[in-house]
Design goal:
Layout: E1 2-5, E2 8-13, H1 19-24, E3 32-38, E4 43-47, H2 52-60, H3 72-82, E5 89-93, H4 99-106, E6 110-115, H5 118-127, E7 132-137, E8 142-147, E9 152-156, E10 170-175, H6 185-198, E11 199-210, H7 216-222, E12 227-236, H8 239-242, E13 248-256
Parallel strand pairs: 5-6, 5-10, 6-9, 10-11
Antiparallel strand pairs: 1-2, 2-4, 3-4, 7-8, 8-9, 11-13, 12-13
The protein binds S-adenosylmethionine.
The site of S-adenosylmethionine (SAM) has 23 residues, from strand 1, helix 2 and strand 6.
Length: 257
């Protein structure tokens, strides 16, 4: 059984397997990094390096974990994100077809997302019956899906091609992708550097992470000069997520000061 979170795929298998037996069986590649939890009959493996191509394939096969309802952390804390401002330019990294995009747009805000896999973006506009156009954007080696009113701009490209020369001055970031827990350290810093470069004056960033590898100390180390981090809320994982070794979700609020 597979659970995909951000850039990570967790695979739960029902047979007892040890790291040694995996190594011997030839599966101990860079892709399968480690068994996080080992019970008598269940093992959890974390597969890193979910490439853009693998994601595009998952979207084509309808195997992504799109969530059709608003995230509880979002509904509970969106007032903090928006902070009584109008037409807030909001960034949604690794957006898929997140329902929070439509919610923000309905409230009059501007939403910019980045996602690989055209299918997610096409489906976002078509399922929500929002008219859109598509143009090539060579600077990101991808495409831009834009609503007719221009307030939703979803870039179909590799996140690491996106930067503040393309879009900048964000007033809010909704980061529910969990990507920070997924990538290797060098990539985590690269990811954080892009996010920081996009955060404009008084930007509020709500970042939801599971608790496998990023903690409060790490977040505070990344967001130092010019930023303040609060550990704002915590939600316990449901049974399904618990079976993948995920205890809960932590919400961090990161302020640009
Ligand atoms: C957990 S899913 C997000 C699902 C979304 N919340 C929804 O409800 O549809 C993570 C998303 O990140 C995208 N993604 C993963 N790696 C990416 C990368 N390097 N660049 C751009 N998008 C990426 C995938 O295509 C996928 O849609």
């Amino acid at each position: 059984m597979i659970f995909v979170c951000g850039l990570t795929m967790y695979r739960r298998s029902e047979r007892k397997r040890t790291q040694t037996s995996r190594a011997n069986s030839g599966h101990a590649t860079a892709a399968v990094k480690k068994a996080k939890h080992q019970h008598s009959d269940v093992s959890i493996e974390r597969e890193d390096h979910m490439t853009v191509d693998k994601w595009t394939k998952l979207w084509k096969e309808d195997k992504t974990n799109h969530t059709p309802k608003l995230c509880t952390m979002f509904t509970k804390h969106v007032d903090k994100l928006i902070n009584s401002r109008e037409r807030v330019k909001t960034f949604v990294p690794l957006c898929g077809k997140a329902v929070e995009i439509k919610w923000l747009w309905d409230k009059g805000h501007e939403v910019v997302g980045v996602n690989c896999g055209d299918k997610a973006l096409k489906e976002f506009f078509e399922e929500n019956k929002i008219g859109y156009s598509v143009v090539n954007i060579p600077a990101v080696k991808g495409k831009l899906y834009k609503s007719e009113d221009g307030r939703i701009r979803l870039y179909c490209c590799d996140f690491y091609q996106f930067n503040s020369a393309i879009e900048s001055g964000f007033g809010a970031v909704w980061d529910h992708s969990g990507s920070l827990i997924a990538v290797d350290l060098a990539e985590q810093e690269k990811y954080v550097d892009i996010i920081k470069s996009l955060m404009g004056e008084k930007c509020v960033n709500l970042t939801v992470l599971d608790e496998l590898s990023v903690n409060y100390d790490k977040i505070r180390t990344w967001f130092t000069d010019g930023f303040r981090v609060e550990a704002s809320d915590h939600a316990k994982a449901d049974r399904n997520l618990k079976s993948f070794g995920i205890k809960g979700h932590q919400l961090y609020t990161i302020f640009k000061i």
